Amino acid sequence: MNTAFIIFGASGDLTARKLIPAMYNNYRKKRLPETVQIIGFSRSPYTDDSFREKMKEAVAAFIPEQFDIKIWDEFARHVHYQVGDIDNINDYRSLVHRMSLLEDHPSNMLFYLATAPGLYSKVIGRLHEASMTVESDQSGFRRIVVEKPFGNDLASAIAINNELHGVLDERQIYRIDHYLGKETVQNVLVLRFGNAIFEPLWNRNYIDHIQITVAESVGVEHRAGYFDQTGTLRDMFQNHLLQLLMLVAKEPPVAFEADALHNEKVKVLRAIREIPAEYSSRYSVRGQYDGYCSAEGVRQNSATETYAAIQVYIDNWRWQGVPFYLRSGKNLKEKSSEITIQFRRPPTQIFDVASGKTELFTNRLSICIQPDEGIHLRFAAKVPDLGLQTRPVDMDFHYRDSFGSNLPEAYERLLLDALLGDKSLFARSDVIEHSWKIIDSIRSGWESEYAPPLFRYQPGSWGPEAANTLIGREGRWWIQDCRGEGQSDRS
Ligand SMILES: NC(=O)c1ccc[n+]([C@@H]2O[C@H](COP(=O)([O-])OP(=O)(O)OC[C@H]3O[C@@H](n4cnc5c(N)ncnc54)[C@H](OP(=O)(O)O)[C@@H]3O)[C@@H](O)[C@H]2O)c1
Q: Is the pTM of this model over 0.85?
């Protein structure tokens, strides 16, 4: 059956930077059926030709190595544009009419909400009003992809879910978190459940603690207006960091299928111990980089955090007592996303630590999500020729060495999955709601009389000193194993 991929917000940044380049690449790799038609919908007065021209420039600019004018020209025949206002029901009727005139008369419809979240509700309502959400064997499937942010607290997330559920079934709704489309993120499950050697050690008996870092080296830049109303906790933790936490902490699913995967994620979120307001300062840190308030679009004297670190516990059989340290911030020293599994010390130390000839060390598994995608395992080795002196060494896996340097963009995989009806890498409504519950509870501590101070930090540093105190209190420290090529600095 033929499929229309309809983008609401087609003249915007996301469409040009991610959606069309991803669809082009899927076409180039011959993963799209010839019968797919892409229809951009927004108010800007493009024609098919001028929209194609704008998208051509975007693809050539954003993925220059993969741009091939011959393939683009073939692909461009599948790209169309319809001028329309999200709030005008007649424009939806024109869209339906337009689709009926297209070659192959698409009957399946995949709607993509690439607009400001404030418009989601209008699109959902109008699609329903125009009878565009009705599925049948004759009319084909109806699916909707919803961009992040999915609400800004539990109440707003529930409100969007209710609106969606009012006109669509949960199985038709695809909530995107592009982090889940990253190869390295998907590889966490393969590492854990595709190998026999890690899983037996993946628990409180062998693991001392786990760290998850998502660091950005840039400041607030062009997203200031949105970010200043949101902050790091809502912008990064509710989705990316909690998603990584769930992948690392969940139990093996009974099958590699969407519901089985989501069921295990929800169990992790439900087991996260709530941080009572009075312990807010003990288990969380918030910071703001110097100069943030003078960025364009930021409120004077804004108290929005650009950095956050939290310590959480998962109260279940596997993880009882193991701290998880999560941190994320803007304007930090390096862009890097990584998960560190820090193992316990060997139960006895038979080598000569006291004399200083041997380093007291622990095993460590570092999963580097970006920039140098790979996995490193640290273990002890004997220094040659020097009695029984030992030193930590690394066993390294780099994606670029094993599979070449061109990892596909997350959106390629996610858009294809949405077209194929695979929801494994999209968020289910209960996962979203549980994660907002956790974030809301931390935020309510931050709004209480026990709120931690808003610590300042220097742009280009690793964040406020208080974050070192948070993790250092129990004799631990933040680890940066994943660096760009040639910059490894393991401790
Ligand atoms: N950009 C990214 O890299 C990125 C990354 C992750 C998530 N997101 C999310 O993706 C969504 C879109 O982001 P963006 O950066 O692409 O935003 P954007 O550049 O501001 O684009 C917004 C789009 O919405 C359209 N629009 C606004 N009002 C409309 C109306 N009444 N009728 C029809 N179209 C309307 C605009 O087109 P007209 O003005 O021509 O109508 C424009 O195409 C947001 O939810 C954002 O949070 C974006």
A: yes
